[in-house]
Amino acid sequence: MSRVFLLIVACLIAVLASACVSAKYAFPTAGELEGSGRFDARQLESLEAGRVLAVVECSDCHRMYWPAEYSAEEWPGILATMGRRASLTEEEIADLELYFTVVAADSFDASREIGAR
Ligand code: HEC
User: Fold this and answer.
1) In Å, how far from its chain's centre is CA 12?
2) What residue numbers bound the domain in which 34 lies?
3) DSSP state of 73
4) pTM for the whole structure
5) Residue 117 in contact with residue 19, Cβ under 8 Å?
6) Which of 19, 50, 51, 73 could make a disulfide contact with 95, Cβ separation 3.0–4.6 Å?
7) By alpha-carbon position, which residue is closest to atom 1 of ligand 1?
8) Across residues 66-78, what is the average pLDDT?
9) What is the CA(62)–ligand 1 centre distance, in A?
10) Total structural domains in the chain?
11) What confidence tens digit (pLDDT) does each residue in 17-56 have?
């Protein structure tokens, strides 16, 4: 009986934890961001390019860092350094900067903006 209870508690914790984790680790696509109505076509293109660059270029040397792990103020400095390390162009760094600052910890609420939980 108490083992069943523990199992139920464990499941509840797992469900709650995954809800929090997916909000914190949101990596929304430009298509998802479009729904917020905050961005024009050029910005959406840049956001999509930034997301693709992040996925392709930013986990060669270490694990993927999620946008929500740093604030919009912290990302530009980090990306300037990491962009050089990854040998990216100024334009690519600008796309990454837009993406990471839009989705950064303090500027993005996944549940509000893209309906993710
Ligand atoms: C050529 C290897 C390399 C590539 C490519 C790279 N990084 Fe890094 N990154 C590092 C190293 C090495 C560190 C360890 C900390 C340091 O030396 O600054 C690091 C640290 C970090 C940190 C932690 C910084 C801190 O101050 O704690 C973040 C965030 C990060 N990288 C993000 C990125 C992003 C985003 C990209 C893609 C644009 C990227 N990295 C591409 C090598 C790389």
Assistant:
1) 25
2) 2-113
3) T
4) 0.81
5) yes
6) 50
7) 85
8) 93
9) 7
10) 1
11) 555 445 556 789 999 899 888 899 999 999 999 999 999 9
DSSP assignment string, 16-68: HHHHHHHHHT----HHHHHTTT---HHHHHHHHHHHHHHHHHTTSSSPPPPGG
Our answer on whether the CB atom of 61 is closer than 6 Å to any ligand 1 atom is yes
Query: Does ligand 1 have an atom closer than 6 angstroms to the CB of 57?
Result: yes
Query: How many CB atoms neighbour CB 13 within 10 A?
Result: 10
Instruction: Using a pLDDT cut of 90, give the percent of the chain over it.
Output: 56
Q: Is the pLDDT of residue 57 over 90?
A: yes
86 Cβ below 6 A of ligand 1: yes
- Cα separation of 46 and 96, whole Å? 8
